[in-house]
Each structure stands twice: as structure tokens, then as C-alpha cells.
Write a structure and sequence with these properties.
The chain is an alpha+beta fold. It is built from 5 helices and 8 strands; from the N terminus they run E-H-E-E-E-E-E-E-H-H-E-H-H.
Length: 209
């Protein structure tokens, strides 16, 4: 993706943490005709003992993407964070409106997981997303035979991370006066996305002082 230099996020640990925190992603694969196919789905980050980072997830077997895993072409996973419209009326000078946002693009090649790897993925995903439930369920609360029967309707994949690109467009190119004005205006809105963008802008500006 195109990211101007002053908005680039290059710290590996920050990029990986962003992926963990924003795990509902957009997965894009290209079919034999060169047509991109996209799926919105939760994707988990897995780092092995060799510090190799991989993404794992699953799609329905009926999804056209299910037949594309393992191809030579690279896959793309897009992880998006908070975003907000920035009005040019907030500046102390004439300028154009823009949009602040955080995003990470991940490129890599895929393979299909084995049945046992798929079972382990499902167990970990259910545990993760049920953790905050009042009455959490787990794979262990179901019979293994039932879970493996349900697995016949899906295809799980692993994507080895080859390249990561991070974008943190947060008005870093603005002076302190205009930067503070943007934060103030964002906090006056009643949407949580704007507040998250303001928090991140403030955190990063304080971090460089």
C-alpha cells in the first residue's frame, strides 16, 4: 500500500501487537483468472519458537477462497484500526480535509492446515473469544466427534508472514497547536472511533517529546 514516509509504521513488535488487537481482518486471494476474492474473518497471530510469525484462520468450504490456499501467489491480509474524518475547519490556516487511520497490510503465502491443526485452531479461537462471556463455552464442552463433524464444512489455513506494511496516519506532520486542536475536536464527537484516534494521536505525540 502507499504510505508517505512520515506515516509509515515500521516497528515489528508494534505491527504484531496491532494485528493481535485488531484480529478481524480482510483476507484477499487471487483466483486463476486474476480476480481478487476477499473474505472478512477473524485471523489469529501465531509466533513459534524460531520467532517466525504466521497468521491462521478458517473459511467455509463453500467459499471460493477455500480452493486457493497453497497457491504460489501471495495472499494479503488487511487489519484495520480506528479511523476518523479530519475537517479542515479545525486548522488555523487554509487546508484540505483528510482522514486519520491506522492499518497494517500483511503479505505471505498460504498452506492448508491438517485436521489436528484445525481442531487446535478452533479450540484456541473459541477460548479467546468466549473469555468475556458470562457463560463461556469451549471445545471441551462439546464432543470431539461433533467438532470434527463440523470441521468438514470448513478449510483452515496458515499464512507465513513475508512482508508487513503499517500506516499510522495521525497528523504527525502538524505543528503542536494544530495537532492539539484536532485532538480537541475529535474528543467533542460522540463516536468512539474519533476518541480512539485522539487517544492514539496524543500517546504518540507525547512519546516523541
Amino acid at each position: 500500500m502507499y504510505v508517505p514516509k512520515h506515516f509509515q509504521e515500521n516497528d515489528r513488535e508494534q505491527l504484531l501487537q496491532f494485528i493481535r488487537a485488531h484480529s478481524f481482518a480482510l483476507l484477499v486471494l487471487t483466483n486463476e483468472a486474476g480476480v481478487p476474492i476477499a473474505t472478512h474473518l477473524p485471523i489469529e497471530l501465531n509466533i513459534n519458537t524460531n520467532d517466525t510469525a504466521r497468521l491462521i484462520g478458517h473459511v467455509s468450504k463453500a467459499n471460493p477462497q477455500a480452493k486457493l490456499f497453497g497457491a504460489d501467489s501471495q495472499a494479503l491480509a488487511v487489519f484495520s484500526g480506528p479511523h476518523a474524518y479530519i475537517s479542515s475547519s479545525w486548522y488555523d490556516h487554509v487546508n484540505v480535509p483528510t482522514w486519520n487511520y491506522l492499518s497494517v497490510h500483511v503479505y505471505g503465502r498460504t498452506r492448508v492446515l491438517t485436521d489436528d491443526e484445525t481442531f487446535d485452531l478452533l479450540r484456541k479461537q473459541v477460548d479467546k473469544y468466549e473469555a468475556a462471556s458470562a457463560c463461556p463455552v469451549s471445545i471441551e464442552s462439546m464432543t470431539e466427534a461433533y467438532v470434527r463433524q463440523q470441521m468438514k464444512g470448513l478449510v483452515a489455513f496458515e499464512m507465513t508472514i513475508e512482508t508487513m506494511q503499517g500506516a499510522a496516519k495521525l497528523s504527525q506532520n502538524r505543528d503542536d497547536v494544530n495537532h492539539a486542536a484536532i485532538i480537541d475536536q475529535l474528543r467533542q464527537r460522540d463516536d468512539i472511533e474519533s476518541h480512539h484516534v485522539a487517544d492514539e494521536m496524543e500517546r504518540r505525540r507525547e512519546g516523541v517529546k
